[in-house]
Design brief:
338 residues; alpha/beta; 3 domains; three-stranded antiparallel sheet; 14 helices
């Protein structure tokens, strides 16, 4: 039977640490299960995340032979001081080497990840990172503002006073410069943090943001299918126990919930430059709770009045992108005020 898997994304941790001979076994299994070796010929996409320090000619050749059509390389910064702050230990020059090795192997699509808002980073240093990333000639850049999430080493170091967070206004200026500099280079922002040349958008991530279904493989991976949401158990030993008819144990399973689905539709859809179809959303909302439309119209009108939303298409304005979390939170409360 013809596989109907449209995209595959191997990420989280450092997949490129896996030895090529083990990658070959994994790719053989993916080919049997999902037609991985032919996914590109079917119009699909197969991405693998790579650390610049662990990319080798053998690895790139193995990935390409197994059907990988795209690599996402974690550059983060080209500044050695800022890499040290982020506890990333690769040589910045190896980013360019990794891109070249991917191309030589026939992996024609490459993306770079960058981080801004690093403690001590200046706007000129961030502009330099953008220029260097563009000089690699890749078709896609992901530019993320540094976040401090609970339980992470970065947050713990900040709480110990090892460094101060960057000024919010400076971080906003970095975000604005990112959009303008990359637009001038022919890269369109198609999502809050993602920029691509026309046709080079990450198809796998678009599936997330457009609320398509996806399966979860590996510890801590999240899945979404037919309205169900779940997460695989995070511990490798538990994941390998296969306690449920050959499937690994899952945690945080949530059954379909129409109201939650509406919030997720807004949470993901408004991240995209294409925005959402507001009429389609309101029709769905009416079937869940007719009172949502009244609350929604009031909230949306107020946000448009502040210049944070555009009506047609229904999407964030340039100012709205700077306050995206606030906008999405306000609209989510219109769906579920509790």
């Amino acid at each position: 039977m013809e596989p109907n898997i449209g995209t595959i994304f191997v990420g989280g941790g450092t997949p490129s640490l896996l030895r090529p001979e083990l990658w070959a076994l994994l790719l053989e299994g993916l080919d049997r299960a999902a037609g991985a070796s032919s996914i590109e010929s079917r119009g699909g996409e197969f991405t693998v995340e790579c650390n610049p320090e662990t990319v080798t000619p053998e690895l790139m050749h193995t990935l390409r032979t197994g059907g990988v059509s795209r690599v996402s390389i974690g550059a983060q910064s080209f500044n050695r001081v800022h890499l040290k702050t982020l506890e990333r230990w690769h040589d910045p020059d190896n980013v360019f080497r990794a891109v070249e090795l991917a191309r030589r192997a026939g992996i024609e699509r490459q993306s770079l990840d960058l981080i801004f808002g690093i403690p001590g980073q200046t706007i000129d240093e961030w502009r330099s990172d953008l220029r260097l990333a563009l000089s690699a000639g890749t078709e896609h850049l992901s530019c993320y503002g540094l976040t401090y999430e609970q339980g992470t080493a970065m947050t713990a170091r900040h709480q110990r006073g090892e460094f101060s967070r960057i000024d919010e206004d400076l971080e906003a200026d970095m975000f604005i410069d990112t959009v303008s500099d990359l637009a001038a280079a022919g890269m369109r922002r198609y999502e809050v943090s993602n920029f691509a040349r026309p046709g080079a958008e990450c198809r796998h991530n678009l599936a997330y943001w457009r609320q398509k279904d996806w399966l979860a493989a590996g510890p801590a991976a999240s899945g979404h299918f037919a309205g169900w949401c779940w997460k695989n158990t995070p511990r490798l030993d538990d994941y390998l126990s296969l306690d449920d008819d050959g499937f690994a144990p899952i945690i945080d399973a949530e059954p379909p919930d129409p109201r939650r689905a509406l919030i997720e539709f807004i949470l993901t859809g408004l991240r995209l430059a294409e925005g959402i179809d507001e009429n389609q959303f309101l029709e769905r909302a009416d079937s869940v709770d007719p009172a949502i439309r009244r609350r929604w119209n009031r909230a949306a009108d107020a946000l448009r009045g502040r210049g944070l939303l555009i009506h047609t298409p229904f999407c964030l304005s340039e100012t709205g992108y700077l306050l995206a979390n606030q906008v999405i939170s306000t609209l989510s409360l219109a769906i579920d005020p509790s």
